[in-house]
Amino acid sequence: MGNRRLKKMGFSTRSVHAGKPKTNAVRSHAVPIYQTVNFEYRNFDELVRVGQEKQKGYFYSRYGNPTLDALNGAMAELEEGEAAFAFASGMAAITSAFLSLTKPGDHVLSSSLLYGGSHRFLSETLPGLGVEVTFVHPFATDALEKGFRWNTKVLYAEPLVNPTLGVVDIRRWAESAEHHRVFFLVDNTFTPPPLFQPLRHGVHGVVHSTTKYIEGHGDTLGGTAVGQADWIGRIRDIGKIYGGIMSPFNAWLTLRGLRTLSIRMHSSSGNASVLADFLQGHSKVIRVHYPGLAGHPQHELAKSQFKGFGAMVAFEIQGGLKAVRMLCDAFRIITSTVSLGEVDTIVSHPASSSHAGMSSEERVRVGIPDGLLRLSVGIEDVDDLIGDLEQALGKV
């Protein structure tokens, strides 16, 4: 199925068919796993031409691999970018993106509400490389405009804030980036297609932890960057030098997970909406963070920006860390662990996992108290999930 035909079809059709081999000698219906380090050539001259990139072909799997390229093509298709490149993890994609966009003496302007690993890289590692970083609250418009400098090169944000699920006005940020001629980079892990496609809204580059919703089964680490071909070319060079690229087998597993992305997101998002309503009415729950709730401060923005409200729910319970410990130990179906975006429902405690690298004062400042839990809702029967939440909360 050619790309031209595919672009005219619905997202579910595209997610099932994107990345399929256009031609292969054995006419394989599924993408083959090219589990090889190197490649063979008809003669020495062909080896030299491919190695010098004067002829199309594959030289060494750190430089490129047919299975990875199938995934790269699929991600470019679904995010509607010109090209993509797959990495060994989400953090490898994020760090490589910044390394491709900045140099000593540059400045980065970032949302202050981020995944803990990203925040740590921006606040600790990047300044050590000579790049200044300023954090601004994503809901303070004036602060955003005042944050730009003459040497600002990158603007960075997450559309749906991790873990408190505030909604960043990506169109508004994109306008600012355009006005100041700054590269706008977005981490779209929480809101993958079909929920949101940032490149449609003025964003220049997108990164994902494919470990989460893209792969969806909790058995494969990965990341990706998607954008214009010239930027992805620079990203690919970073991958070659630093070596943090995805393996062929993980690319194959990620492609397999990608086939069901649309139906998984539809099911888990529907469940999340029901669970958010249930938690909002529970006496032991102080507050619920979910953009689908009418009382959410950016509910109307979420309605206009996203195609659905996603499958993440955050909620705060009475009793702080002691109550959190009791609740997590009481679950029977819901698993207390780290990560998100899997087919089963996961509860995590941001203060001791994703944001453990921040001080307690920093966490409180960004709205992550000890009693906050993050629920990544899966595709189970929703009545069973409600029953599990009910019995566990009853033991707190």
Largest sheet: number of strands, sense, barrel closure: 7 strands, mixed
Q: What distance separates the N and C termini?
A: 54 Å
Structural class of the helices, strands and pairings? alpha/beta
- CATH uppermost class of the largest domain: Alpha Beta
Number of separate strands: 12
Uncertain regions spanning at least 5 consecutive residues: none
Q: Biggest sheet: strands side by side, in what order?
A: 1-7-6-5-4-2-3
The CATH superfamily of the largest domain is: Type I PLP-dependent aspartate aminotransferase-like (Major domain)
- What is the arithmetic mean of pLDDT? 93
Features:
single chain; 396 residues; Aspartate Aminotransferase, domain 2; 7-stranded mixed sheet; 12 strands; 40% helix; globular
Task: Give structural notes.
Helix 8 (170-180) links the parallel strand 4 (152-157) and strand 5 (183-187). The chain folds into two domains: 3-258, 3-Layer(aba) Sandwich (Aspartate Aminotransferase, domain 2), CATH 3.40.640; 261-393, Aspartate Aminotransferase, domain 1 (Alpha-Beta Complex), CATH 3.90.1150. Strands 1-7-6-5-4-2-3 form a seven-stranded mixed beta sheet, with helices on both faces. A five-stranded mixed beta sheet has the order 8-9-12-11-10. It is an alpha/beta fold and 396 residues long. The model has no long low-confidence stretch (mean pLDDT 93). The protein is built from 15 helices and twelve strands. 46% of the residues are buried.
